[in-house]
Amino acid sequence: MNSLNFETKPVSERYATPLNLKSGHVDLSHGSGGRAMAQLIDELFIKHFDNDLLRQHNDQALFNVPAGRLAISTDGHVISPLFFPGGDIGSLAVHGTLNDVAMSGAKPLYLAAGFILEEGLPLADLERIVISMAAAAKAAGTPIVTGDTKVVERGKGDGVFITTTGVGVVPEGVNISGDQARPGHAILVSGSIGDHGVAIMASRENLQFQTSIVSDSAALHGLVADLVATAPSALRCLRDPTRGGLATALNELAKQSCVGMVIDEAKILVKAEVKAACEILGLDPLYVANEGKLVCICDADAAEELLAAMRRHPLGRDAAIIGQVIEDPHGFVQMTTAFGGRRIVDWPVGEQLPRIC
Amino acid sequence: MNSLNFETKPVSERYATPLNLKSGHVDLSHGSGGRAMAQLIDELFIKHFDNDLLRQHNDQALFNVPAGRLAISTDGHVISPLFFPGGDIGSLAVHGTLNDVAMSGAKPLYLAAGFILEEGLPLADLERIVISMAAAAKAAGTPIVTGDTKVVERGKGDGVFITTTGVGVVPEGVNISGDQARPGHAILVSGSIGDHGVAIMASRENLQFQTSIVSDSAALHGLVADLVATAPSALRCLRDPTRGGLATALNELAKQSCVGMVIDEAKILVKAEVKAACEILGLDPLYVANEGKLVCICDADAAEELLAAMRRHPLGRDAAIIGQVIEDPHGFVQMTTAFGGRRIVDWPVGEQLPRIC
Hints:
Two copies of one chain form a homodimer.
Chain A: H1 2-6, H2 35-49, H3 52-55, E1 61-65, E2 68-77, E3 83-84, E4 87-88, H4 89-102, E5 107-118, H5 123-140, E6 144-152, E7 160-170, E8 186-189, H6 195-204, H7 221-230, E9 235-239, H8 245-257, E10 260-264, H9 272-281, E11 295-298, H10 303-312, E12 320-326, E13 333-336, E14 342-344
Parallel strand pairs in A: 5-6, 10-13
Antiparallel strand pairs in A: 2-7, 3-4, 5-7, 8-11, 8-12, 9-11, 10-12, 13-14
Helix pairs in contact in A: 2-5, 4-5, 6-9, 7-10
C-alpha cells in the first residue's frame, strides 16, 4: 500500500508540472509508454492537433466512409534543416502526404502521424513543428486523427523524423494512374520548378541570394479537385514531382505507361533566382525537388480547358502545357532545348540532393 | 543527344547489374528518387511484398471498401537490435500495427510501410527484414500496398526504422473503445506477460539463460475475430499491452474510462524463465512490453464464454480472468499480491526499456 502515500492525486492532476516547453528537451522517457509520454501526447500533440478522434486516446481512430474506392499513401519526412524558408518538417509532412493521396484524384480525409524523436531535441522546436503541422492540417481540412511517438538515443536519429499516412476517397468516374499515358496526350505542369529544393540547399549552405527563395510546399488537393470537376474522364496521370524533380516524375510516368515524352524547355518555368542559385550550386532545375507542383497528363482535346482551370487556382497561376506523350518503346523523355536541339532527360543516377523531403 | 550514346537500353533492362544483396550497402542514392531508388524498390520491396497494388508503382494505393466504419492506426518501429529471438523489426512492424487496428475489433485489410534507412546498412540485412515482413503480412492476409523509402546519412539514424500504418473495417454492432470500461466488468489477459521485453533485453545484454526466452510477437486479429464472433456486444475494451506493459495498458484504460481496477497477482501468468530474467535485470514484469498479448474488458456475464473462446485459439491458450473494474474517482489500478496485501500498480514514470518496439 506504500504507493498510496505518495500518489493520491486524481488522474487529471497527475502531471505535477507542465511540460517545460521553453527550455526542456525530449528524453527517452517521452517514448516509454509511461507518464512522461502521456504528458507529451496530452500537452503537445492532442492540444494542437485537437480533434475528437484523437482525444479518444485509443491506439487507432475510427471513421465512417461511404462505399467506394479509397486511396492510401505514406511518406517519411527526414528533411534537413527542420526549418526552412516557406515551411518546416511539420507543414511538409502534411503537404507531402496529402499531395500523394490527391494525385489519385482523391479527396483526402484523414492523416496519421508517426514521430521518431531524437533524445535532446528541444521541446520548443517540437512545439513549433507541431503547431505548424496542426495549422497545415487544419487549412487542408484533414485532421490528424491518430499517431505514435518513439524516442531514440542521441546520435541515433536527427532531431525529428515524421512519417505521415493519408487516406482519401476517390470520386466515381475518375481513373487516374501512372500507367494511363498514351501517345498524343498533353503534358501540363502547374507552375515553376525547383523552388523547394533550391530553398533547402540555399538555407543548408547558408547562401545569401539577393532575392529570397522560398519553398513551394503546399497542399494541392484543392487544385486537383478543380481539375477533377473540369474534365474528370480526360485526366490520365497526376504526379507531384518531389525527390528527383520534374525529370524523375516524367521518367517514372514514361516507364509505367511504356511511352516516350517530348517536352519543350522554353515552356518550363524556372524563376530567375532559382536559375541563378542552380548555377551557383551546380544543380539542374529539372532534377530539383518541388513540394507544391503537379504534372498532369491528359487527353489533348481537354488540355486547354484543364490549363485554364489550373490557372484560375492560386497554386496553378503559372501552369503551362510543356509537351506531349509519344510512342517510344525505349520510354525516353526527350527535351527540345532553347537552342533548338533535342536531348534525353534521363533518370538521375546518383544522389543530387540528400534529405530534401 | 549525347545521353543516347550511353543509354539506349529499354527501361526494363536499365539496371546494368542487379542489387548486390550479398555484400552491398544502402547509400544516399537509394533515397534520391532516381534510378538507384527505383532499383531498390523493384528488386527488394516489390519483389517480396509482391501484390498488384504495389506493382502499379503509384505514390498511393487504391482499394474498394464497403460503406461503414474504418479503423486506421500508425506505429513507428525503432527496436534495437533489429533481429531478436522470435522475430525482427520487419515482422514486428507488421504485427504491431495490425494489432493496434485489431484492438478496435476491426478486421485489418491493408498495410502501408515507410522505411527510414541509415547509409551503410548492409543490403543483406535489409533483405532479411523485408522477407520477414513480407512473410508476416502474407500470413496475416494483409498486403503491404504502398510504401516509401528515405535514406539518412551515417550516424543520423540507426540501421532501419519502419513506420507502418494499417486500415481495417469494423464489423457492425461492435463498439470497442478504451473509455467503455464500467464497474463490474471483468478483465482478461490472453496469456503470459513480459516475454517480448525480456527477450529483447536478454539479447541486448547478451545474457545466456538456461532456457531461451523468445518474443511473443504475433498478429492478434484472428484471436480478436473469435472474440467478436463469440460476444460482440459484451466486448468493451481491447488493448495490446506493448510499451510499458500490462501495468501501463490498465492505467491507460482506467484513465480513459474514469474507473479503478483490482487485479489479482496470482492470476497473472509470468513464465518462470521470464520471472528469473526480470530478477537478474531488475525489471518488474508488469511493466515489460508484450507484442502478442491483449487485455480484454468485458461484461461480467460474458467473461467465461470469452475466456473459453480465447483458450481455444492458439494465441490465447493461457488466457485468464485477472480482475475486475471498480468505481474509483482516482482511477487507480490496485493489485492483490500473492502475500494477500494490496498495492497500487502505478504508471511508470521514467524509462524502463528504451527502444523495445
